[in-house]
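## Example pair
The file below holds two records. Each record gives the amino-acid sequence first, followed by its structure token line.
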Amino acid sequence: MSFTATYLEKISASNAANGNYYGNSIAISADGNTMAAAASYVSGSSNQANGAVRILTKSNNAWTQSASIVTPSNSNTDYFDYALAMSADGTTLVIGVMSANGTASQQGQALIYKLSGGTWSLFQTLTNTQAGQDDNFGESVAISGDGSVVFIGATRGDISAQNPNSGVAYAYVYNGSTYASTQMLSGAGTVTDCMFGASIATSYD
């Protein structure tokens, strides 16, 4: 079986500026008509490099920006949009914010946005109540095709006190109203500084 990749087009932001890091991370729907692209150093209302996610839609073989999602915290140290994942139908988006502050400094979080009536709105903020400082929760994210299961990587999370910064991943399942944490995942034989969970992928179902 052979596969040949063909260059189609270059997609750039309509309001791009030097140093925006547009395209730093990307997610796309199964039909290829909805795309989320990170612009990691776009300035926000405080004129800081807060980051943003541009939503683009394809129609008549042309891509246009249909929405822009900015960090709710208005912080330039959160690493908003560090990782992105999109459901198959292009209506649920997971954004990793690996250095967001929580109960611990820069423990990280993940934001789930849903598209309804043509508007992207924050649906839920995922945090880890067991997270410690600099756990990097949200460094990687994945979502099942139907949007019912979400995985979040925390590359400096601790399996135990004996194995600090080993890295873990967390599974969340949608129960009809919210995404609930169901399991913490770790690798067999994982030891200190393994960075388990640095990248994540999941099947359609």
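Second record, same layout:
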Amino acid sequence: MTDETPSIDRNEPIAQDRSGGFSPALLIILLIAGLGLLAAGAMLAANDTPNTPARDGAAVRPLRDWQADDFTLTSLTGEQVSLSDYAGRPVFLNFWAEWCEPCRREFPAFAAFMAEQPANGPIILAVNQGDSAETAQAFLDEMGISGVTVLLDSDLELANDYPARNLPATYVIDPDGFVRFAKYGEVTVEELYTYLDELEPASRG
């Protein structure tokens, strides 16, 4: 009988047993733990952190349940519009820009939503970030959008009061002026109505 020495593929990783170090079971446990840490990190990145500033120099505030400061901005029609003009009404404060593709997708939802609201009902204030009045108006004309109040935040001063990094971002302000919810990313008509339904219990809480 001849002795045959088994060949070893040196490109194949070898899990050592108890006599040499790591066992296969221990390697599996370490792998699962590593995947868990990666998943946790991804969730944190997706949800942002409660005190993330919007940009360098921006105010640090929690994501919700804080009093929104009053502000005054110029609308595309040249009017001076303040948040306090809508006291007692739910306000959706949206930040957007012409170059933002999700912003482009959500504007028809804003127009459809506003077309269904009574005169003193909920309002969407769509605050443009850094575009000229001409660029913002051309965007609305191209999209065929009407009925949405568009304000100009040319120097991004208002955006620095809110803890969003990316566009679009929408803050749901209750009739008492408190920010109750924040949505980062595209908003649908269904979500707008869901937020309205949630405002009353959130205000009581």
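Notes on the second record: The helical segments are 24-47, 101-115, 133-143, 189-204. Residues 24-47 form the longest helix (24 residues).
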